[in-house]
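Posting this for the archive.
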Amino acid sequence: MTSNPELASEHGYYMEWVIAGKNAWKGKNGNTFDHVAMHSRNVLGYSGETNADGHYMNASNDNTTGYLNCKMRQYLLNNMLPALKALGIPFEESWMKAPARKVSKGGTASDPGSDVISDKLFLPTEYEMLGSHTYSNSNAEAAADQGRLGYYNSNERRIKYNKDNEVRIYWEASPYSGNSTTFCSISSSGSAYSNYASYVRGIAPAFCVA
């Protein structure tokens, strides 16, 4: 599934989407509807930003408010989602669903608890991308509550590029467990990774249709 390539190029986007999972969150966190999870095949840019293919999670190295209150989430909902709509994502917006997802409240406590977040455009958690916990909190983001995106069954499939075909590290929603400064990410080789919250890294958002 791709956007109009000429329109995408004009606005600084390279857009291609993969079906990353089917009914990944059905039966979890109160979700009852059938759905398909779509995920950006590569990192997306927003033409209004200096770093056109990336953004930070927070302006400072802080994960203590979790994904719920981070700058990245605001950016996705207030900037990127309207921009994608303007570019003509190839489906009716009414088809978009906002599945309830559990994401850790922060990185410092051994079990900081979870925020239940329902967004139409979002970053997957570490478990949703890898099916395991390497740096994320396995209590706050328990496997039983997570939606596994089955398309990502290898490191190779997790590697993502920008519009210039350059490999980019990209963000996940999960705070790094055990510190207050870092969020989880996917490395340039497609494996589990992490970065300080203020680093500019790629954005690979997901959404659900039903």
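The longest strand covers residues 17-22. The chain has one domain: 5-209.
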